Amino acid sequence: MLDWLRRxxxxxxxxxxxxxxxxxxxxxxxxxxxxxxxxxxxGSEVRISVPRWTxxxxxxxxxxxxxxxxxxQIEALPxxxxxxxxxxxxxxxxxxxxxxxxxxxxxPVPDDGFLLVGGPASSLSARLKRxxxxxxxxxxxxxxxxxxxxxxxxxxxxxxxxxxxxWGSCAADGSIRINWRLIMAPDPVRRSVVAHExxxxxxxxxxxxFHDFLGExxxxxVPSANRWLKENGRSLYVxxx
Length: 241
Hints:
The chain has six helices and eleven strands. By secondary structure, it is an alpha/beta fold. The chain has a four-stranded mixed beta sheet with strand order 1-2-4-3. A four-stranded mixed beta sheet has the order 5-6-8-7, with no helix packed on it. A hairpin with a 2-residue loop joins β5 and β6. α3 crosses α4 and α4 packs across α6. The chain is flat, with a radius of gyration of 20 Å.
């Protein structure tokens, strides 16, 4: 996945969107032939990829010309809220209605479209987040071991990430980090990210050989998974108040 390296945010150019100042991060890519722009999943920054020869002012003018579209994206971000009885929560691509009863067990249990959970209402959001993180760790560990076996690689250490700028990463030492919020996405989407990072254990780049190898180990459609993340990834950043 793309690695958006940041400088000090105070050094980034800013654009006013929906009544707030948002940093504009410009990334120059040797392979880029045109400017492309998107909003970070949490609305924290505008990201523009440009050819290496592009002037920063041209990239900023491009962002300004799309201010109305960006403002709509900002306003569509999920609002911070406390998760409570009757609220909706996604888990592995399925939407569940939270059913909270203090008499139920504290550990959430998916049951026919409902997520049954007990314990105090005051700590419900925090406990749901911890449950999702725990499920993510277990499921992602299975995914990682499976793709490493397919790739003929030793299974490296796995860390959960809460990054807002990338879904996964593979470090030079082979350690892999995956965003825990992918446990809310459909299984093929989550698994595509794991497969992507495992493919980097063999090809530490985004060369044609890398993409060919990714297609060999991943059983689904990479373009479809990427398209889902592009269209729906922001929805995974539901705030846990």
